[in-house]
Amino acid sequence: NGRRDDKTDKPRFMFNIADGGFTELHTLWQNEERAAISSGKLNEIWHRRHDYWLLAGIVLHGYARWTDIQNDGAFGVINEPFKGEASKGNFLEMKNKFLARRFKVSALGVMREKNLVKNLSKNRSENMKENRSEFGVNLAYKGWEKSENKVRKARVKWEYSRCKVVLNQLEELLSDMKADVTRLPATLSRIPPIAARLQMSERSILSRLAS
């Protein structure tokens, strides 16, 4: 028809991760994908497909825009694994923490992949420099993982101490309740009958109620 299409093709979102097994991503993918395939629940069990759409959603909506990503129908597949947890009180917090954790793991894999490709593309004369850089990257990642473990242990220790405080408070509350219950019969015995408080006989009260 002679009309020129002014639409410009958007670059496709693509990524590849082959980090040599340095991060935990490949182990996660293998175990999760095996479970998803064996159970026939490819959407309900989180695996590499969900990580792909999570990264695509972050590219489109921005980092930590979890609500926007979840509400976008194009990325609806990432909501499937959580449908059975929707009734829990901390559902949204739990879901957002999981998405943040998966992004962190995936991002490490992508960063690792980028460094590998960068090192492989350098000139052969820079091999020694590349090796030192690669060694530095490995040390950096190991340092990050060590730091992450320390943070996780500290968080567990803090949560344990908080639980201990809450349990002590509950124990004190139960003790107070038990003490109140033991005093209840004596308290009730001191309360005068309704007829005495109304200064009416029981017959008069029944007569009033009947009328």
From TrEMBL:
It holds the Pfam family CHDCT2. It comes from the Eukaryota. Transmembrane segments: none annotated. Residues 43-184 form the CHD C-terminal domain. This is CHD3 protein. It comes from Zosterops hypoxanthus. The lineage of its organism: Eukaryota, Metazoa, Chordata, Craniata, Vertebrata.
